[in-house]
Amino acid sequence: MIQDNVNNPQHYGQGSIECINYIEDSMTKEEFQGYLMGNVKKYTHRWRYKNGAEDLKKARWYLDALIQSEERK
After folding, report:
1. Which of 26, 39, 42, 57 is disulfide-compatible with 6, CB 3.0–4.6 A?
2. Confidence of residue 16 (pLDDT cuts 50, 70, 90)
């Protein structure tokens, strides 16, 4: 089985709740959106120097999550 480090990293699935859901639950909407935007910036900054396309896919994942968060009103 191929490990998907973008959409389902194995190290984030330990326990009964996904890490991203725990983070969202512990923050206000504004804080959570800031967290997501920070990750978009992090991955778009480092893709050339670290993980290439994988980091761009991670940036897209966080951007999609930010869009979903914004659309939930």
Report:
1. 57
2. confident
